[in-house]
Amino acid sequence: MPTLKLLLAGALCLAAAAVAMAQEAARASAQDPVPASAAAPAQQSPAAPHAGDLQACLKETGDYVTIGRAVLYVIGIANTCEQRLRCEIFANVTGVKGSSLGHTIMVLGAAGSGAAATQTYSMRVKAAGGTTMVSRDCKAL
Predict the structure, then answer these.
(1) Which DSSP symbol is given to 97?
(2) Out of 3.10.450, 2.60.40, 2.40.10, 2.30.30, which CATH number does the structure's domain 54-140 have?
(3) I need a surface site. Which of 17, 47, 100, 120 has the fewest CB within 10 A?
């Protein structure tokens, strides 16, 4: 019987503590309403990206294409910013038949220039599949 009384007393203490915490949280939220300006962050117009942000302007794709007996790895890059970019591309494709290296320089037009904002580079590889590493160094013109 004393154990039962001790358990009931402990349960009542925990329930009282939970109620007190809930009341305190309700009071705190009523006292500190969120101002309308803090609820919705201000919309800022996108500024011209800095040198470190140029990578955010680029969308890159890569895939293997077979034309007859030739296997190509095609790298596509699209510029989404409103400035021209000069990108130097380095590629290394390592497969079961060996490695293939590729290098090119692309000049990408501004995003509003249509097709000039997208460029592709096709490099011949020894086999489809494997490990592909592509690096790029881009600068604003």
Answers:
(1) T
(2) 2.60.40
(3) 47
Q: Which helix (H) or strand (E) holds 14?
A: helix 2-31
- Rounded to two decimals, the pTM is 0.61
pLDDT in tens, the chain (141 residues): 555 454 445 444 445 555 555 556 556 555 544 444 444 444 443 445 555 578 888 999 999 999 999 999 999 999 999 999 999 999 999 999 999 999 999 999 999 888 999 999 999 999 999 999 999 999 998
| Annotated domain spans of the chain | 2-30, 54-140
Query: Which is nearest to 104 in space by CA: 124, 85, 123?
Result: 123
**DSSP-assigned beta bridge partners for residue 88:** 105, 137
- Residue 63 CA to residue 61 CA, distance in Å, equals 7
What would the DSSP string read from start to end of 42-72? PP-PPPPP-GGGGGGGEEEEEEEEEETTEEE
Tell me how crowded residue 67 is: count the other CB atoms within 10 A of its CB.
Answer: 8
